[in-house]
Amino acid sequence: MFALRLPSLLAGSLTAALQFFWCAGVRGLWAGLIAVFLLLSNSVWVTFARLCYTDTLLAFFTVAAMFVVTRDPRLDTTAARWSFIAFDAAAILAKSLAGV
Q: What is the pLDDT of residues 53-65, one digit of tens each?
């Protein structure tokens, strides 16, 4: 049962970490802490992260794609371009089979 929930748990944790680094890098340490506190105080987020829902995976891949675009808005570098493509494709595939 734990192996079934592991991707959602990891995605929830990684989303919180990515949100912290993003906000702390833009506005400072306190902004990063407040952003993570607001995310973790949301009972819907905590419930989705504990259960086997694909919404957490979708949120992580979407936040990761937005983070890549924030770091390199024109996607000039090859790493940024392929990272955005990979995160965007993973977000589409995480939610439905329509992405296939």
A: 888 999 999 999 9
